[in-house]
Automatic annotation (TrEMBL):
Highest taxon listed in the record's lineage: Eukaryota
InterPro entries the UniProt entry points to: AB_hydrolase_1, AB_hydrolase_fold
Record's GO cellular component terms: chloroplast
Organism: Eragrostis curvula
Domain AB hydrolase-1, chain residue ranges per copy: 109-350
Protein name, per record: AB hydrolase-1 domain-containing protein
Length: 364
């Protein structure tokens, strides 16, 4: 269980707080991940070819969205890839940079251009005090893909979507509704339940507590104090990365922790985490609904699922449920936990590149 979740529940009601002794899962997870080999030497996260801000309008409020583009010398047949970061307390475009550079740098019959976009309220995008939920995030993604002035506007109907965690599931949900029309979808370590709901469920008593915590985090003054306790401190971030974000604790470097800590100090940083932690960003409410999202794409869109060897037990079970599921074209497994694209980027890039080659070759 993430330390932030444990602290949050303890704050809301000591009677439902869970001690570390009551969490054999977490101890077992540590034992398991230490058996994972160190990642192969990865390429440095080179600087993007271009960075910029795209203005998203939500309820007549302009929100500046950060994006960056990665490309090499372009040929005649170039496919566009939209990479969207995992939605989390410390979400950032940085998690996809090495993957993007690896894919666009390969030579072949097809060329690739990758655009990585930060979610509103996260990363280097503006963080206004919106009432964030899964529908808001879906609306953002739909506008991003369909607006004529967006950074992915000139994809010519061949836009690949690559997302991690909740981001992948929100993209699949939008595609199933026909709101977006991706040519290929890759879901990397896909999830659908936030930290508190995945551990404590969605009973009416817990939903009341989630609402209390959410209101506290969004409140002036006390909200920042609570956010500093739960999220915005280096010890908490390091604990989360070592316990369930990365598979190998030795790969959690001081530079990673420092860069993520800096993100938590940006103006408005607490608003999306308040929604994510308490389940408001969950795109579905059950495994059955989760599977149905992918089933909606059967026969229409090639879908790759990239599972991980050392994901937390509950998240791993949801990924495994997609193996052989309707709407899933290919299921693969790579080293890692909840952020394999950052911890083992070359392994993820290799699987993505192979699937893209297979998908586009089949159309010729």
């Amino acid at each position: 269980m993430p330390p932030a979740a444990a602290a949050a529940v303890a704050f809301l009601s000591p009677s439902v707080a869970v001690s570390r002794r009551a969490l054999p899962l977490r101890r077992a997870r540590h034992l398991a991940v230490r058996a994972v080999a160190s990642p192969p030497a990865s390429k440095p996260a080179s600087k993007p070819s271009k960075t910029g801000k795209w203005q998203w309008k939500f309820e007549n409020q302009p929100v500046n969205i950060y994006y960056e583009e990665h490309e090499q010398e372009t040929g005649e047949d170039v496919k566009n890839i939209l990479m969207i970061p995992t939605i989390s307390d410390v979400s950032t475009v940085k998690e996809w940079r090495v993957v993007a550079k690896d894919i666009v740098g390969r030579k072949g019959e097809l060329g690739y251009r990758a655009t990585i976009v930060d979610w509103p309220g996260l990363g280097y995008s503006d963080r206004p005090s919106l009432n964030y939920n899964a529908d808001v995030m879906e609306s953002f993604l739909v506008q991003l893909m369909n607006s004529p002035n967006s950074p992915v506007a000139n994809a010519d109907g061949e836009l690949v979507i690559v997302g991690g965690g909740h981001a992948a599931t929100i993209a699949v949900r939008a595609a199933g509704k026909g709101l977006i029309k991706p040519s290929v979808v890759a879901a990397v370590a896909p999830t659908w339940a936030g930290p508190l709901p995945i551990v404590f469920g969605r009973g009416s008593d817990m939903e009341t507590r989630y609402g209390l915590l959410r209101g506290t985090l969004r409140a002036p003054a006390i909200g920042w104090m609570m956010y500093n306790v739960l999220v915005s401190n280096e010890k908490s971030i390091q604990s989360q990365y070592k316990s369930h974000v990365y598979a190998n604790p030795e790969n959690v470097t001081p530079d990673i922790i420092e860069s993520r800590y800096e993100l938590t100090k940006r103006k408005g940083a607490r608003f999306v985490p308040a929604a994510f932690l308490t389940g408001l960003l969950d795109p579905v409410q059950s495994r059955e609904e989760f599977l149905q999202l992918f089933a909606e794409l059967e026969g229409d869109v090639p879908v790759l699922i990239v599972s991980t060897l050392n994901a937390p037990k509950r998240s791993k079970a949801e990924m495994e449920a997609l193996k052989g599921a309707k709407g899933v074209t290919k299921f693969v497994e790579v080293p890692g936990a909840l952020l394999p694209q950052e911890e083992y980027p070359l392994a993820v890039a290799e699987e993505l590149y192979k699937f893209l080659h297979e998908s586009f070759s089949a159309r010729r």
